[in-house]
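Minutes, project huddle
Topic: does the predicted pose make sense with cobalt (II) ion bound?
PN asked that the exact inputs be recorded in the minutes so nobody has to dig through chat later. Recorded below.
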Amino acid sequence: MQSFPDIAALKYEGVESKNSLSFRHYDADEVVEGRPMREHLRFAACYWHTMRNGLADPFGAPTAQTPWDDGSESLDNAKRRADAFFEFLTKCQIGRWCFHDRDLAPEGATIAQSEKNLDALVLHVAALQRERGIGLLWGTANLFSHPRYMHGAATSPSVDSFLFAASQVRKAMEVTMALGGEGYVFWGGREGYTTLLNTDLSRERRNLARFLHLAADHAQSIGFKGDLLIEPKPHEPSTHQYDSDAESTLNFLREFDLFGRFKLNLETNHATLAGHSMEHEMTVAIAANSLGSVDANMGTPGLGWDTDRFPTDLYLTTQIMLAVLAMGGFVRGGLNFDAKRRRESPEPIDLFLAHAAGMDAFAFGLKAAARIRTDGRLAQFVRERYASWSTALGVEIAAGKLTLTQCAQRAGELTNPTVYSGRQEMLEALLNDVIFARSRA
Ligand code: XUL
Ligand code: CO
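Predicted holo structure (tokens), as shared on screen:
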């Protein structure tokens, strides 16, 4: 029995199509820079927002209409939800998915019961994955909803909470591996503080590092070959989260001898909450060879919280895909729509419309990014801007061959340093031209 009987599979219909339940730009087989679009974009949908988010907000009740869900915590209901989700993935041409342990299966009264529930669901979704040819992008453990984690999980003042978190991560990692997951994510929503008045920050950071070492060692011992990913976010629900942005997370990894064992899963709305652009976060991560995957969404300018909107901004998707192409494409990561519909878009069909909007925006962004690279003027401008560092003198300084005094002596031989225009406005216009030129679309 279908959960979405009135919705047909979405197809590529080309830019002239007026059908919102089709793709205008996403043609999975279209080859861009030598690879089909599906391989560049590696789309995933998330289980939590798609299946488990009733669309409540702090002021209002849930609005989402979910006829396949009887609202109970039974295993049968959990399996029906999974059936609906996989039907949705197939109809949207989305080849991957992501989940938290507690989204998928109900928590039991004991750890053993919770693990049994999860095993039952894992068996069920493993069959769905096989039948439909769908893969798991990443799995994770929910270490933030239950009251036992109110003060943190790995960073809780209570050893008991640390132990519970360890048991959850161990299990979630093992089922992620059993489902062929390409990655395993750590997002520490409560790994931070609400007030420094009651917080030993130094101890909490050390405990977080210990936890990550234990998890990485466990991944190694069970032979998990996927990426271990940390997802930065500056705050919400905590006042301050220790993994606040790409730079602070990379610094944390270096400080505690974890660098190289973890990559980053960057989310657009988290970047903007941190006061950065996604372009900034991606550039920082790629420079450290540490970009693993992307949670594709966007914020709402003027609203100071994580609104997780579907990513429809064409500049944003172009910038993201420009960064992805520059690093040579995703290896095990992808674009996971960690996005939710507005509370005012509660119908099942809105799930399809929302994902189609995000997929088309990224397909456009991919093609625009490829055009920018083919055009070449932007990269050429950047190369030429640093030309002085390719002269014999520049190379010697960069290689550490000159002392500060020798640099000062060379400065004395100059009349005035040569400076050129950065041409930002010209470059922005150039970008507009290449992104939106109809003749080249
Ligand atoms: C929260 C968030 C999470 C992580 C997984 O802001 O993005 O859903 O992606 O725990
Ligand atoms: Co996320």
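Observations noted during the meeting:
- The chain has a mean pLDDT of 97.
- Residues 231, 267, 295, 338 surround cobalt (II) ion (ligand 2) (CB under 6 Å).
No decisions taken; revisit at the next huddle.
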